[in-house]
Write a structure and sequence with these properties.
32% helix; 9 strands; alpha/beta; 7-stranded mixed β-sheet; Spore Coat Polysaccharide Biosynthesis Protein SpsA, Chain A
């Protein structure tokens, strides 16, 4: 099964200016995810879709393919992640090769664990159902909320649903609150900066 890793990284954010380029320990969020994606051997390839010239330059320096001619409408703060990823898949298949599924990696989750991501991929391959990582406390509070760390979905399901919110998806709790941290605002960034200074 060919699983394509896709990183989405808009130039701007509604809450944090140039969020994906903000740094933790002298490394931007997008760099952290780009570097991490290259360690996932279970992915057939990795690409990034962005409207930022600076992020494109960073991706090129790391030899990560960039989706060309991303439509302006997919770069607004209200643009759908699913539609952005669908466009990226179409570009990749037109210019490279067909894929069976995608693994979405968003730069706002800087503390992913490789063993956990591989576990999610293995669960997906075994069950052929959408896999979504969730906050480790979700089960205790009777919720199944995505933490944004990992989404894995069959290409055909994504094209059909036009969404990552698959009703029958498999929810996999992240190994810790640290791993499930999703940076959305200044407070989250401050927490991430503190966590980055703690060795584990």
């Amino acid at each position: 099964m060919k699983i394509l890793g896709i990183i989405t990284a808009r130039a701007h954010s509604s809450r944090l200016f140039k969020k994906n380029l903000l740094k933790i320990k002298n490394k931007s969020l997008v760099e952290i995810t780009l570097d991490f994606s290259k360690t996932i051997s279970k992915l057939s390839d990795v690409i990034i879709t962005t409207n930022s010239k600076e992020i494109i330059s960073i991706a090129k320096s790391k030899k990560i393919k960039n989706v060309e001619n991303r439509p302006f409408g997919l770069s607004s703060i209200t643009a759908s992640s699913a539609l952005t990823v669908i466009h990226a898949i179409k570009w990749y298949e037109l210019n490279h090769s067909k894929v069976d599924a995608i693994c979405l990696l968003q730069p706002t989750s800087p503390f992913r664990d490789l063993k956990f991501v591989n576990k999610c991929i293995d669960i997906f391959i075994k069950n052929r159902k959408t896999v979504i990582s969730t906050n480790p406390l979700c089960e205790k509070i009777s919720q199944n909320l995505s933490d944004g760390s990992v989404y894995i979905i069959k290409k055909n399901d994504l094209f059909r649903l036009r969404s990552f919110n698959e009703k029958f998806s498999i929810k996999v709790p992240s190994i810790s609150k640290r791993n499930s941290l999703d940076i959305d605002n200044l407070k989250d960034l401050q927490i991430a900066d503190k966590l980055s200074k703690i060795s584990i």
